[in-house]
Amino acid sequence: MRSGKRGLLTAALTVVCAVTVLSAPGTAFASPAPTPAPTATPAPSPTGAPDKELEEVREKLDKLYHDAAVATDAYNAAEEKAKKQSAEIVALAKKIVEGREKLEKLKDQAGAAARDQYRTGGLSSTAQFLLSDDPGRFLDGVGRMLQGQRAGKNLMTEKARTQKELQEYAADASARWKQLEAGRKAKAAAKKKIEKQIDAAEQLESRLEKKEKERLAQLERQAAEKAQNAWLDTGVLKDVRGKASAQGEKAVKYATRQLGKPYVWGAEGPDSFDCSGLTSQAWATAGRPVPRTSQEQWRQLERVDVKDMRPGDLVIYFDDASHVGMYIGDGAIIHAPRPGRTVTIAGAGSMPILGVVRPDA
Q1: pTM for the structure as a whole
Q2: Radius of gyration of the chain from Cα atoms?
Q3: pLDDT, tens only, 313-344
């Protein structure tokens, strides 16, 4: 029975490996690595599968959920861009409506002038004054004629300008519609990848027995504790004494109130969050809006040294800035970890730190 169970676990890993490879863009296939020398088989843990196999499962789950986080950032970015583009299209539509109304008025004015000339045999009322034998009326008519000429010229200039603006608005709206459509496709592709990665992770976890899941959770905690301790052992927090700003305190209080709420990709509250949904909403509530995604938070916000960080600062993780948590002091963060988990407190060094950014610098 044990060999059968190990066979199932190995098969599950093989399937998930295939899913990951097939979904990774531009995957290069290298020559097979040399077969390592035989080593002693580890004794099975009391929970069932050997820790070595469970550790492989843990690493594979980390990879799947990391890929899902990257895709989630892409989805969130596409969502934000779509909101912005939609608002721009609405604004352009309003300008087009206003421009058309203005153009119609200009056309009416030009038409009225043309009708006036027709009624007077091709001469405007101003020109008729010039034909008067009365010197006073003649001089008055000269002024009126010049005014009429300027008004007519201005009318035609304004009409031409309005027509040009309408053409530019229409071209701009068309371009933004194309961008919006491209963004929708990118968002759909990101959603598909997220669901694929999460589904593969859930399938892998579903093949484990209850005791194996408990042991796997224990291995996850041990890995996080090991990373946190290694980070603390560097003395990185020795000089960290930063005090939260007033806005930082508000952001931390907001994040703290969300403890226990589930992670849902693409969510930004109030009942569930993804990692950047939590941090962006916390700072928005504190009166300091920040970019929606962890990658944009890393790119746009001011960076500070770890030794200078203070509660409320955002800690960005992994080389691709695919995860973010909020520093709360004493070497800890609040974050929304991944699907199947809830908003929780963790060691700030339990994941590879890319850097720290400050929303209210």
Answers
A1: 0.67
A2: 34
A3: 999 999 999 999 999 999 999 999 999 999 99
Q: Which of 335, 336, 337, 348 is catalytic?
A: 335
Under a CB-based contact definition with an 8 Å cutoff, are residues 244 and 311 in contact?
yes
3 state SS for 137-160 = HHHHHHHHHHHHHHHHHHHHHHHH
Dihedral angle over CA of 193, 198, 200, 206, nearest 10: -170
Distance, in Å, from the CA atom of 279 to the CA atom of 274, rounded to the nearest integer, reads 9
DSSP 276: H
Note the residue count of the chain.
361
Residue 323 appears among annotated catalytic residues: yes
Count the neighbouring beta carbons within 10 Å of the beta carbon of residue 230.
Answer: 11
Does residue 335 have an active-site annotation?
yes
In order of 16, 56, 77, 113, 179, the CA distances from 186 in angstroms are 24, 32, 10, 54, 10
Cα 9 from Cα 5, distance rounded (Å): 6
